[in-house]
Structures are given as structure tokens and as C-alpha cells.
Amino acid sequence: MNFNLNPEQQLLQDSVRRFVDRDYDFEARTALVKAGSRCSAKHWNTFANNGWLAAALPEAQGGLGGTLLDTVLITGQLGRALVIEPYLGCAVLAAQTLRAAATEAQRDALLPSLADGSRKLALAYSEAASRGLPTPVAMRADPAPGGYVLHGVKTLVLGGCDADAFIVSVMTPYATPASAHDGAELRLFVVEADAAGLSRCALPLHDATWAAEVTFDGVFVKADALLGESGSGLPALREGLLHGTAALCAELVGAMEKAIEITSEYLKVRKQFGVPIGSFQALQHRMADMAAEMEVARSMLYALLASIETDAPEAAERTASQAKALIGRAAKYVCGQAIQLHGGIGMTEEYTVGHYFKRAVVADALFGNADLHESCVAQALQQSLTVE
Q: Which option is the CATH number for 234-387: 1.10.645.10, 3.40.50.2300, 1.10.10.10, 1.20.140.10?
């Protein structure tokens, strides 16, 4: 995989960097947080007008025809500013799952409004028992005349507070009973947010972003709310989560970069014994360790992008688990060390660096934490050895 950016990709990365430097400094972000903002309409329009929402969507449905690399370039820069808008949840997770699952007619109907920012979709897949993984799924869809009735609860729905509709993973009876090995399969539905029986509870997360808990209490949907064909639900959900994991990992690499920059500047101006504390060799060693961890994380991100492009889905998912565990732990280490090097001021709400650690903690919980993904990798390796 070629990681040298072409001119269009360099322009994309530069445009996002200019936005976060000019319009999304820490003071601007703090003002949004204090105002209780979950998604600034002004900033979301900026995302749409600059083509960031459409970057990795097909040209036939209003997108720019880009790839996962374009998404990663965007989220890497957004991570530097700890952007609170639900780009990850709506523009990556939901959009890429929809692209993977939908028929051509469904893409034509749904993707253009995501690309231009006029509608937001959120992916409601996580449940208490799944711990951020795509399975198991307890939510069910009971057949009814003309459609299905949905029952269940979805947790940690990123972008769910302001979504116009949800993509929901549900267990449904097989269309042909003879093909059923357990009587049900995972399918994806598009459910409007104002559907009767649907309720959502806004959940403020530790890093000032928001998620939602969505309850489906006898929600009726028509049969045409089903995305794609039988057998497409779980593969599409896994593909969407692959894109989401890569985007989140890139965001954490961007956050580590910024945390190191902030800390480096602080060590140059903070004085002790009449000299900048950055001149102390022990602190220089700690900064070197932080930079090394960040570069290992960046290399792991590159390995994940290459695996998604070239490997079979099972191998790419195993690499995604490795990346999620390694980069998540690296981010907590780097951002935690940044707080340590700032001393007491690093613990205050009014100072920037502590918020990067909060983002790292929340990111570790999303899509399954490091321990869970390490367990997934261990199980996959054990199975491969057994087969051999």
C-alpha cells in the first residue's frame, strides 16, 4: 500500500488541519462543551461543504469516490482538536455500514443526503452483552403483516442523540426455514428516529462527546426497511466496524501528536531552579518514550490500513483487533505521561492536556476495549494452530 499522499489527499489533510487550527482551538471547543452542544450545525455544514462527509462515499451517490485512507486523513486531524461532532458515528460508522449493506437502489435513496449533510444516520449495533463487538445480538424482529416489529435496546450509539434515523442490527427469522441453522440471522434495518415506540436517552461521555441509548418497544417497520439481501447483514456490519476502528485509531494517533506538541512547548517555558525543565535529562527521556510509543502506534495504523486493503476479511479483522488494543493502550500511556509532565496543572479542566487523556479512555471502551480485542486475537491464533 502506498502511503505517500497524492496532491488531492494532501489538500484534504491540509484543509482539515486549517479548520482545526483556525476554528477549533481549545477555547472554541470549551465554549461548545459549556453550551451543551452535541453537534454544531455550523461545523457540520463546514464538514459537508468541504466534502469531508462525502470523502469515502461512491461518486454515483453524491460522494467523492475516495477510500478509507481519505477517512483516516480526516479523523487524524480531527483527533488533534478533540472535535466533539459525531463524525466517527455518522460519517464513518453509519455511512460505511450503509454503503456495504444496501442495494444499489437503497444507496441511491439514502447516501446523497448523508454526503451533503442534510441528514444524519447513526449505527445502533452495540448491546450490553456484546461489549462493543458486532455479536451477540439479543434484539429481535418479529414478523408482522407488511413488515416487522422490533424489540430491544441498543447502547453507546455514537451520533444517536441527533440522528434522523438509525441503522439497527436485529435478529430476524430466515426467509427460507430450510436454510436456517439456528432459526435466525442478523439483518440491518433503517428505522426513522421519530418512529412510534422508539425512545432515546442522551448519554454524556467522559470526554465531552455524546452517545445515546436507544430503546425499541414494539417499533413497526415496513419490509422495505431491511437493508440488502439475506446473508449481507453481518458482513456489512463487520466492514463498517473495520472502517470505524481504523478511523478511531487514526484519531488517537492525531491526539497523541498534539499531546506531545503541547507538552514539548510546556517543558520549554516551565522553569525550575532557574532553567526550563525541558533541559532535565530525565524529562527528555520520558518525552522520547512518548514519541516512540506514538510512532509504534502510527506503524500499527499503517499495518491495519494495508491489511484492510489486501487481506481476507478474517485476517483484516484480526489486525483490527491488534491495532485497537495496541493503539488504545499507547494513547492512554502517551496522554497520561503528558499530564504527569505538566504536574498539577495537567489535572485541571481549564488546561488542555488532560482532555486528551479523557478521549483516550473513552476511545478504549468504544468497539471493544483492549483486553477484549487481545482475547479475540488469542482465540483466532489458537484456532489457527488447531487447524494446522
A: 1.20.140.10
